[in-house]
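User: I'm putting together notes for a lab meeting next week and I want to include a structural view of one of the chains we've been expressing. I don't have a solved structure, so I'd like a prediction I can at least talk through. The sequence is below, exactly as it appears in our construct file.
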Amino acid sequence: MKLIYRITSRLSLALLGLLSLWALFFYLILVEEINNETDDSLAEYSEQIISRALGGETLPSSDNGTNNTYHITPVTADYAREYDDIRYFDQIVYIASRDEEEPARVLKTVFRDRNDQHYELTVAIPTFERDDLQMTILVWIVFLYVLLLLAIVGINVWVLARSLRPLYILLEWLENFNVGRPTPPLDNPTPVTEFRKLNEAALRSARRNEELFEQQKQFIGNAAHELQTPLAVCRNRLEALLDDDTLSEHQLGELLKTMDTLDALVRLNKTLLLLSRIDNGQFPQTVPVDMTALVTRLTDDFREAYAHSGLEVHISRQASLSVDMNPELASTLLANLLKNAFVHNRPNGRIDIEILSDRISIRNTGSETPLDASRIFERFYRGTTREGSSGLGLALVHSIGTLYGLTISYSFDQQEHHFEIFFGKNIRSVPIS
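Assistant: Thanks for the context. Below is the predicted structure for the 433-residue chain, given as structure tokens.
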């Protein structure tokens, strides 16, 4: 949820609670005010009736068209002493003129005449229907709430969108920022102090990451380059020792093991140097590469090298796929994926390669558990304990894909490992007729 919508939703909930409290207090105050006004009318009406009764004047008709009703009842002195002089309360009374019952405000008071006879006067004035009043207030509160909510949402979205515009510009800039690629300029002027500080912090962090990345690339490239000569010297000396006829069989075996380890180190060094060259953009040459022919040639080479594994290999060609890439990197990209399919397979397993108009799909049997899709393209990550694996093969694939904007995906379904390369805008495909 976006920040502006989250703020608006919380304001709406707060407004709902505030309006509900306001409605409750408004209702109570309104009822109290109506009762006060009605009580004043009741008191005035009762005084008129008592004054006339004590003065011997004719009492007003109880049915005078005003819906006001009264009646006088003789009571005992004990009853008069037991109750207060004036009592107000709400009651449902019968209105003869309407022949129906209505809610009314009632006043009861006790008075006595010159003969010390006590009387109780009951006066009733019809008042409002509480249920109707509550419903009316509820309807208007809902209407007011909806109206205010729409107004507040509109105003908040407009105000917050304008106020948070520098934040969204910064977020978009951060999304487009990639270490190793040219840093886009951050054009985000703002008078808000917090946003200015946030812009400065983001720029400092970006520059620091760029510096660290450049230092890392330079270190890896220099280290890999400097290691080439010592590794070559060590290999030459070991080869010279292998030609010594005085060595025992055990010594020759140990030397061969050392040679294997040195070969693995040489391959690792070459891979690191290649990664460094890719990161430094040292492969500017881009030509149309026939990926169909390249896949066929590499597959034939690997099929011959791993013939002892009894693997069943199928190639399906749906298009003659040509891609604008550096030929060396195109070969490295496909060779690493195909080699994984051969090396990390099971005896008598299966490899299915499909060449489509916009992608190449490689499926192979192998381990019965999927690889960690979130880490397989990390450098030095090993999803297998197979000896000789450097953990850089798929990292190379990822670096080449990043360089050319390719999409490389991995999935595991039907007990098969599935890699796909989507070539996007780099493709030059011609369907097979």
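A couple of points you could mention at the meeting. The longest helix spans residues 3-55. Residues 30-136 form one domain.

User: Perfect, that's what I needed.
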